[in-house]
UniProtKB/TrEMBL annotation, chain A:
TM spans (from-to): 36-54, 97-115, 136-158, 178-197, 209-230, 323-346
Native organism: Micromonospora solifontis
Keywords: Membrane, Transmembrane, Transmembrane helix
Full protein name: ABC transporter permease
Lineage, top ranks: Bacteria, Bacillati, Actinomycetota, Actinomycetes, Micromonosporales
Coiled-coil intervals: none
Secretion signal, residue range per the UniProt entry: none
From TrEMBL, chain B:
Pfam annotation, one family: ABC_tran
This protein's UniProt keywords: ATP-binding, Nucleotide-binding, Transport
Keyword check for Repressor: no
Protein name: ABC transporter ATP-binding protein
Keyword flag Protein biosynthesis: no
Origin superkingdom: Bacteria
CDD domains found in the cross-reference section: ABC_DR_subfamily_A
Domain ABC transporter: 8-239
Bilayer-crossing regions: none
Cross-referenced SUPFAM superfamilies: P-loop containing nucleoside triphosphate hydrolases
SMART domains noted in UniProt: AAA
Length: 354, 306
């Protein structure tokens, strides 16, 4: 039997839905149009959350096995945390995935909001109904934005927990670029930002593929810009530390070394070391005191035995929340610009039936 | 016409793309509850005019009223208009969401409109035997047109704008669609404006004509009245016709002259006005072609003079 004949009996002659045709209607339309993307995002987020939760449990176990401190290098636990172990490689891969999640959201959720309508020429259909173009736009962006915020908040929460556990079992700092971006509210803010930027670029370019390339280029460019600039968003602090000393001083709690801390082997020999009085040693003096050889361990112990110091500029770990706020504010500013651009483009878009 | 009986009113309307005017100096009143035939050659400005009436295209100058309410681009009837001024438009390419099923498209219409008549939309689809569970991307061009029409009709607009609605249909479907559209218009308080550049499509469909040429309206009025007020006079060669009326077109051979006249009032019968002259009624096709040729000649004369 043809489905035409299976139509349920119509109810009222005129079905005035009132508010049913409002946000609820657009909620259904948004789901119907983007359901596979939304399901894919949910699956990816669920995998990430599940996997990171599992790794969090593994790291907690290691922490307890290592008596709630760093695991010794040559212990079995230390081996599991060594640079090329499966655990560390998996942690790195998941961190990268969390870092690039905003890009995926921009590409698969942000860009198609308008490019799909332009490419299928359905914008006239959508905008000639009872929803005004602006209301259509903001309701859709609101629904998708809330979805993005909810999903990334779940991922960000687990990612933050995992990153903190990593600092308990291994000498890593939350101020490093990738952990910095993957903790606190930043994954949520950056995801919303790239969702908005994707929608804006889609609105401006009107074609999916070019808009996708534009989002990728923008994401890579901005990520490198942030990586390059964020250590100096506030004036760094300075400190003299004994070389290879047991006490890492202010660098203990998630500090970020901005400058110094390494002996610079320039053209005139090594430099960057200071004696106990704070006088900088020349390269010749340093070579005379600790002749270079192929064993870096011996050289470091030589420098340590002479109580030589290094000069460091650093950002203390206590500043992480402030840095998060500054970076988040920047991304939110970009979000506002992107949303303003979408509003302006939609307002100026003229559609002809021909 | 009273304000209630006017569906669309344009006052010195113009729309320009860059330096090119698509529509200009458009002033007209279109009656409500009628089927209006918007006729013009390709590029005459039909789609542009319809898009401005639908509020999806901004006007460059002038103003538009739909049932007395000004049309503002980008403002839906939901936000600022009443149900009586709701406008639906069906574009030439009959856009649908390709991955939606036909019933999804009906749900789209229900979700996006304050007023939705499911029975009307369904009965339209049933008339043309459109399967509800098939994806729109898998439908034929004619079936897609029927689905798009069902969505447009289901929203129960006061004014329904159909841009080349018969373009994708075979001759049988054309006849059926025009018949059903006329029935829909008769059963409801809906004004239908359909555009075409194929004059033959109009026979027996439109009861009001708006003829566009180069973006300007060159003829508008009730079809019957227009046909009654125009007459073709054929007789021996003469510079002027032997009867009253404005000359729309004059053609001369060595021995014969033919005039198409617009008479001040519709005569009861086309009487022979002078010896050797005969009068003939004019068909809609001939009327439209006559005005289009006359308008084209006027443009050429203007360009030559310039």
């Amino acid at each position: 039997m043809s489905p035409v004949t299976q139509v349920p009996a119509p109810t009222n002659h005129q079905d005035d839905l009132g508010s049913a045709g409002g946000v609820r209607g657009l909620l259904w339309l948004t789901w119907r149009q983007h359901r596979w993307t939304l399901i894919g995002t949910l699956v990816l987020a669920a995998v990430l959350v599940g996997w990171m939760t599992y790794l969090s449990m593994a790291l907690t176990d290691l922490w307890h096995q290592c008596h709630e401190t760093f695991c010794p290098e040559h212990s079995p636990q230390g081996e599991r945390l060594a640079g090329s172990s499966n655990l560390v490689l998996t942690l790195g891969a998941l961190s990268r995935l969390v870092q690039y999640m905003p890009l995926l959201i921009g590409l698969f959720i942000g860009v198609p909001v308008l490019t799909r309508e332009h490419e299928q020429r359905t914008l006239l259909l959508a905008w000639s109904q009872d929803f005004s173009p602006q209301r259509w736009l903001w309701t859709k962006l609101g629904i998708l934005g809330l979805f993005v915020a909810a999903v990334t908040a779940a991922v960000a929460g687990v990612s933050d927990h995992l990153a903190h556990l990593e600092t308990q079992v291994a000498p890593v700092t939350l101020f490093d670029h990738v952990p910095f971006l993957n903790t606190a509210m930043l994954p949520v803010v950056i995801s919303i930002c790239w969702f908005a930027v994707g929608a804006a670029l889609g609105a401006a370019i009107r074609r999916t593929l070019p808009a996708v390339f534009a989002v990728i280029a923008g994401f890579i460019g901005l990520t490198y810009f942030v990586q390059w600039h964020y250590p100096t968003l506030m004036k760094p602090l300075s400190v003299h530390l004994q070389m290879d000393g047991p006490d890492r001083g202010p660098l203990r709690d998630n500090a970020l070394v901005v400058k110094g801390g390494m002996i610079d082997y320039g053209a005139d020999g090594p430099s960057g070391a200071f004696d106990a009085t704070g006088r900088q040693l020349s390269g010749v003096e340093l070579q005379r005191l600790c002749p270079p050889d192929n064993d870096s361990g011996r050289m470091l112990s030589c420098l340590s035995n002479l109580h030589l110091q290094q000069h460091l500029q650093y950002q203390p770990g206590s500043r992480i929340p402030e840095f998060h706020l500054i970076v988040a504010t920047g991304y939110l500013g970009l979000t506002a610009v992107a949303l303003a651009a979408v509003w302006w483009i939609v307002r100026r878009t003229n559609l002809s039936a021909g | 016409m009273s304000e209630q009986s006017i569906a669309v009113e344009a006052r010195d309307l113009g729309r320009r793309y860059g330096t090119v005017w698509a529509v200009r100096e458009c002033s007209f009143q279109l009656p409500a509850n009628r089927i209006i035939a918007l006729v013009g050659a390709n590029g005459a400005g039909k789609s542009t005019l319809m898009s401005t009436i639908a509020g999806t295209l901004a006007v460059t100058c002038g103003s538009l009223l739909v049932h007395g309410r000004p049309v503002v681009k980008g403002r839906s009837t939901d936000a600022g208009g009443s149900a009586g001024s709701r406008v639906a438009i069906l574009a030439q390419d009959k856009p649908l969401y390709r991955d939606f099923s036909v019933s999804d498209m009906l749900r789209f219409g229900r979700s996006m409109n304050r007023v939705w008549d499911q029975r009307r939309a369904l009965s339209w689809l049933q008339r043309f035997d459109i399967p509800l569970d098939r994806r729109c991307g898998k439908l034929s061009g004619g079936q897609r047109a029927q689905v798009a029409l069902a969505v447009a009709l289901g929203s129960r607009p006061a004014v329904l704008l159909l841009d080349e609605p018969l373009a994708n249909l075979d001759p049988v479907a054309r006849t059926e669609v025009t018949g059903e559209l006329m029935a829909e218009a008769a059963d409801s308080d809906m004004t239908i404006m359909l555009s075409t550049h194929i004059i033959a499509e109009l026979s027996g469909v439109g009861d009001h004509l708006l003829l566009l040429d180069a973006g300007r309206p060159v003829l508008t009025g009730d079809v019957e009245e227009l046909l009654d007020s125009h007459v073709r006079l054929t007789g021996p060669r003469a510079d002027q016709p032997p009867g009253p009326g404005a000359i729309v077109q004059a053609q001369h051979t060595d021995r014969q002259s033919t005039f198409v006249l617009r008479q001040p009032a519709a005569p009861v019968a086309h009487a022979v006005v002078a010896p050797g002259w005969s009068t003939q009624p004019i068909t809609l096709d001939e009327l439209i072609l006559t005005y289009l040729k006359a308008s084209s000649k006027a443009h050429r004369d203007l360009e030559t003079a310039a």
